[in-house]
Each structure stands twice: as structure tokens, then as C-alpha cells.
Amino acid sequence: MKGGITHVRNPLTIVAVFAGLAEVGGTVVLPLLEKEVQSVYVWFLMLFPLFLVGVFFWVLYKKHFVLYAPSDFQSDKGFTDVLQGAAQGRAIEKIDQIGRGNLSEPSALEGISCSPENPPDVFEGLGRDAKKVLRTLWKYQTEMFPDYSARWGFGVGIGAPDYRNFQLGVDELRKFELASVDQKGFCYLTQRGIQFCEGNRDAIEVGGETYDDFGN
């Protein structure tokens, strides 16, 4: 019976390879080293597997979805659903932090590196993707923080089906300084964005597409 050599297709295989190399090193390399170096190498052989296990369980607890390869799923949709669910979970976590007042002051969210352009005078002048992002930001901002004491924000994961449309919308809003993005990829209304929404409240609140599926 013929058997083919399997390739590395899963991050767990890489973890197993590193653990195996450590054990092989202890068996083969240790006797060849000088006595002065052997003690240091023994400590490495004892601590490295512990470090590897610690990192593995940390990743398993924090970002378990990165341990799976697309080939582990029956379909591509299953893989993207896992990534999207992780992104929604991060969005819920961020919203919960905002609710507990753990966000920085709104002024800390105003850092935009690009040169601003004059936004359109009316909401209808924005593109479809930008409208959807702005509607979502305004909807939850007014529901959760109508006094603007904090800024509500959200993000869409890279693996989500609508990530590209989300990114296009955010890029347009950033171009006009209507929204800002933090280091984790969550977008928020800027002060200029709030003023724009207040001036176009009727057009924004009349209805339309919003991002509402945050994994609840």
C-alpha cells in the first residue's frame, strides 16, 4: 500500500514540529556538547516546551480560530463564518468596554493622517458603502451615547464577506474626516462626522442599510 507524504496544512502541525525538534535536540545534540554548555542546554530543553505550551494555550484562549486551516472545514463558507464570528465577538467586546466607560476621551480618536477633503453638502452625496457605515455609527451613537460623552465604534473582520465594502465605506468617510479608525480597526465618528450627521439627521434616519449583526 502506497502512502504519500503529507504537507503541513495546519498551524497545529507547526507546533508539533517545534516540540519534536526540542525533544530530538535533547536526545541527539546534548551528548555532543561540552559539559560547561550542557547545563545551559538542559535548562533550555526544560523551559522551551513549557513556553511553547503556554503560548499555545494563550492563543487557544484568545484566538482559537487562527489554529485552523481552510482545509479543516468542509467548505470555504465554514472558514469565513468562523472568522466573521471572531470579528463580531471583538465588536461586542469593544461595545461592552465603551458601555463601562473604558474608552479614551473622544479627542483621542481624532488622529487622521490623510489630508481632509470637503465632504458633500448632503448625505446623498456619499457612496453606498459610506452611507451604510455612517448610518450604523450614527444609529448606535445616538442610542448609546446621545450626549456624546463617549464614541461608539465597530469593525468588520478581514474574513467577513462584507469586509471589502466596509473598508471602502470607511476609506471614503476618512477622506472627508467624518470617521476615524483606531489601531484595532474599529471606526468612530469624528467631531466633524457628528456635525455632518446632525445636519443630515432626517436623511440618515429615514432608513437604509446598517450593520446590525454583532453576534448577539
Kindly provide the radius of gyration, computed on alpha-carbon positions and rounded to a whole number of angstroms.
Answer: 25 Å
Strand order in the largest sheet: 1-3-2
Question: Mind describing the biggest β-sheet?
Answer: 3 strands, antiparallel
How many discrete domains? Answer: 2
| Helix content estimate | 40-55%
Number of helices: 7
Q: Which stretches are poorly predicted, pLDDT < 50 over at least 5 residues? A: 1-5, 85-115
- Run of helices and strands: HHHHEHEEHH
| Mean of all residue-level pLDDT scores | 74
**Annotation, overall tally of beta strands:** 3
Q: What general form does the structure show?
A: elongated
In percent, how much strand structure appears in the residues? under 5%
Protein structure class? mainly alpha
How is this structure best described in words?
The protein is mainly alpha-helical and about 220 residues long. It folds into 2 domains: about 10-65; about 75-205, no CATH class. It has 7 helices and 3 strands, in the order ααααβαββαα. It has helices at about 10-30, 35-60, 75-100, 130-145, 165-175, 190-200, 200-205; strands at about 155, 180, 185-190. It has a 3-stranded antiparallel β-sheet. Helix 1 packs antiparallel against helix 2 (about 35-60). The longest helix has 28 residues, at about 35-60. The protein starts with 10 loop residues before the first helix and ends in an 11-residue tail after the last helix.
